[in-house]
Amino acid sequence: MNKKKIPVVSLIFYILAVITLAYGVWAIVYSAGIVKQAVSLNQLVVAGNEFEVVSFYMSNVAQYVLFALVLFGLGWIVQIITLQQAEDWDDEFEISDLIEDFEEGLEEDLDEDLLDEIDEELSE
Length: 124
Prior knowledge:
By secondary structure, the protein is mainly alpha-helical. The protein is built from three helices and no strands.
């Protein structure tokens, strides 16, 4: 089973998005209560004042919902980029290739050392 781990940065973005969205929902409920109370006390007549009501909601709620979407999007983008880099790394470098490269380099180093020792002995 090939499980993909979520990067820590993405997880932090996701958590911040959930917290911000929760605050946005709380702001919606609170704003709706204020508008409802103003209407019930006849301090606000919605007909003709739709712009003010929508503006009230937009200034109190929309920014938090937008921030939550942006944070979630950032987390998703970081996760996708990290997973692609990990797949590229796995495809590009396999353990067997790394071991072969190490062995070849070790053989070359040994060959050079032996040649140097032979040259020193011959020159003496």
